[in-house]
Design brief:
The protein has 10 helices and 14 strands. The protein is α/β, with parallel strands linked by helices. The longest helix is centred in the middle third of the chain and has 21 residues.
Length: 343
């Protein structure tokens, strides 16, 4: 079977190749495709070397599946071309998520949304995937009325440029400390040239900004949580509000989720429902300081849920803390799980 990874030289593309190897696809014909500047590069994969080809060449090879992580513009251009030759595209960009004719899939929740004739399938946003998976079975049992979500998102969600910015800022700060003795600089205003992925330093900082600002004051990352949650859960009337923050973390995204239900719940039953949700680990024992953190989720495929407690300020409302590796379950793993289920 031929499987193309489009955007293979990027941060998520590299994880896609790792997950393909881990989940038993190493013996298939893997096509690494990327932009013209990367064509000809060599990538090590499962004991052999892949040579990066152009997307056009990958289309001519007519793979069974094409897993995209190349940005929305590339997806809009090339996904229909793959589909035209019979390839099933699983796209990790925002290009098709709002399209009413394209399924938006978390396989544990709604793989049945994919019809035999579908050739372009959208992979949800990373912050959406972990949140909807954590609450999906609670929704079935108690019916969600409203979600209030605050995210603490890893810089890896922005890409390799953001990782380099943090690394360079850390290195710059360490050099300033060495030169200044015990004086600890707090500002990086004079750091000089570096890979600027963000409008501000991310080292020793965080900012309430993910994606682009809309006219209503919300960001596109926040809007994704609204639109995608409703589509995946098939619940267009759920009220959703979100605030996204970027934090200097590389291990995964964290989210504080406040869930109001239409129906009353029993807290112990809710915990059991969370623990029995496929792909979710209930990691929650405050008396032992046991709660999810990015360092626990890094390089793991599970979604970790903790700090499960009733909201004491209003009835029928639950608080959760949800953490997952945004490059794996939030992107690469979810896409490959979709492919596995289709196979």
């Amino acid at each position: 079977m031929k499987i193309a990874v489009v955007g293979a030289t990027g941060l998520v593309g590299g994880v896609m190749l790792e997950v393909l190897k881990e989940r038993g696809f190493a013996d298939n014909e893997i096509i690494a495709a990327a932009s013209p500047k990367s064509v000809g590069k060599k990538i090590e994969f499962a004991g052999r070397t892949l040579t990066v080809v152009s997307v056009e060449d990958a289309i001519e090879m007519k793979p069974k599946f094409a897993i995209f992580s190349a940005g929305a513009a590339a997806s809009r251009q090339y996904a229909p071309m793959f589909a035209a030759v019979g390839t099933t595209v699983i796209d990790n960009s925002s290009a098709w998520r709002k399209d009413v004719d394209k399924p938006l899939v978390v396989p544990e929740i709604n793989i049945d949304a994919v019809k035999p004739e579908d050739r372009i399938i959208a992979n949800p946003n990373c912050s959406t995937i972990q949140m909807v998976l954590a609450v999906s079975q609670l929704h079935k049992r108690y019916k969600i009325k409203r979600l209030v979500i605050s995210t603490y998102q890893s810089i890896t969600g922005t890409g390799i440029k953001a990782v380099r910015q943090l690394q360079e800022e850390e290195a710059w700060h360490a050099e300033q400390v060495r030169n200044a003795g015990h004086e600890m600089p707090t500002q990086l205003d004079n750091m000089g040239e570096h890979s600027q992925a963000y409008p501000y330093q991310i080292f020793r900082n965080l900012f309430p900004h993910g994606g682009d600002f809309q006219n209503d004051g919300y960001t596109t990352e926040e809007q994704k949580l609204v639109d995608e949650t409703r589509k995946i859960l098939r619940a267009p009337d759920i009220a959703v509000t979100a605030t996204v923050a970027r934090v200097p973390v590389v291990g995964g995204h964290s989210e504080a989720v406040n869930v109001e239900f239409y129906n009353e719940f029993d807290i112990e039953e809710a915990r059991k429902i969370i623990a029995s949700t496929p792909g979710v680990v209930l990691y929650d024992n405050p008396s032992e300081n046991k709660y999810p953190m990015p360092v626990i989720s890094e390089r793991r495929d599970e979604v970790f849920v903790g700090r499960v407690r009733r909201d004491l300020s209003q009835p029928k409302t639950l608080n959760l803390w949800v953490v997952a590796d945004n490059l794996r379950k939030g992107a690469a793993t979810n896409a490959i799980q979709i492919m596995e289920r289709l196979i």
